[in-house]
Amino acid sequence: MAEVLIFTDINGLVGFGRYAGAYRIATELRNNGFTVQVIEFFASLNEKEFKSIIDNYVDKNTLMIGLSTTFFHTHISDEKLIKYSTDKNSMHQLNAANVTLLFPQDDEFQNIFFDYIKTKNDKLKIVVGGHKAQNVDQLPIFKNVDYWIMGQGEVSIVALAKHLKYGDALMVAKTKDNSKVLTDKMYPFNKFSDCKIRWEKNDYLFEDENIPIEVARGCIFKCSFCAFNLNGKKFGDYNKNRKTLIDEFMYNYDNYGITNYMVSDDTLNDSKQKVNYLHETITSLPFKINLSAYCRLDVIGGNFDMAYKLHEMGLKSVNFGIETFHKKAAQFVGKGSNADKQKQLLYDLKKVWGDDVFMSAGFIIGLPFEPISSVKNTFEWLYSNENVLSGVGVYRYFMSDPKKIEIKNTNYDVGLTELNDLKSDKNKMVWKTPSKMRMNPKKYNFTQPGSRWKHNEMDWAQAEELVNEFYKNKKCPQKLSMTYFQDFNRIKNLGFKDEEVSKMYYNDPKNLIDCIKRKQEIKLKYMEKVI
After folding, report:
1. Is the pTM of this model over 0.90?
2. Which residue has the higher pLDDT, 12 or 367?
3. Under 8 Å between Cβ of 319 and 391
């Protein structure tokens, strides 16, 4: 039995991987004396599996069931996934149709989920955390949720657990629909540099598993299109210290033989100082590790010695957010140098790294000041033999609006923000701070802001059409490569070697069927341990 049961999943991808957030929360609760069980594969649980889990872990002493929602996507059956692989526009279509407000399953499963839980303990609370907690304003759709935890949840979750178990006082903000909200403005977390994910035996890690590790949170850059909390953080803030990282690497190796990691860090190479300290830390270990990470290409361009150090650190798969080759658009969004320099830098990196590092890159279609002709020139380069990337992602620009959640009068600072033309009042909690583009659209050439944006070069529909055009074209097979940063570790967790992954593509039904079967086997082994 467990006092806290946390369901999690990264179900939008073919492979298997774990989300760091659920285990970070579990670690904090365990450190405070609570028994916790984390459950993977939430999206694909059938009714029998779900009920067996509840029977095993829920009793009168269970305080709460948590839902770690950040990477929840609408559940896609294996059969439907295979069907998508035969379509020209396959994975792009799948990703576009895979968005969910909160739960991966349909309403019928949700009703079974909540009803069965209450038969075991009608006093336990349902708690939602992760990125999708901001959808608290979607009530009464999610009327069965008792608490919503927004932002960094380490302090909030412990406060809630102590409230439920011991009756300790709890700061809560209530929405107009009486949903109870806790935020990291009310319960700030200021100990990231010393925190770890402490894996336990009942997390059931697999042999040689690729697992997430947090190196830093937030981003020192503030790209004009980006709208995430902790953007524009001060240099050095929210970075793990050397002692903590070494302890985490050593613990994972000594207890589970882990040497493969997917780095959770918005920008691994945000500065020369950071790369130097990480290089010194990692190369001091008595064993070698392998890393996948997100990096900025232009920062390497200004400090090319980074290329050698990242290689020596064990970099295996890297993603660059190039976004655009158009000079003016890049300058306005806070990205890179001119196209020729960026391409040359990719060629130089290929010479240094060879086949040891898989390089992928993302491009955003619809950035202000970039005309359609420039986008098509980028496509031509991506289609050509000059393209040295192993993975390519092309996405339509999405302009998000601020998330305004109406709350009742409260004495707590829940995170109010004043926003130019998007004024908050004392009864509005603006949770997701808009991007610079959304805050000042005229500066960025937008004649119509919002999700159906328009600027002088194109509108959202034209951008979507361009993306579809790219994915329908048979050229540039890298766009369906499984070496892409977000896929690489998760495909390797299915038992494939690097050289095998390098030849695997989403539009090959044989590859996809093999991946699905291997993931089913992993789930079966996992469920045998959990139930």
Report:
1. yes
2. 367
3. yes
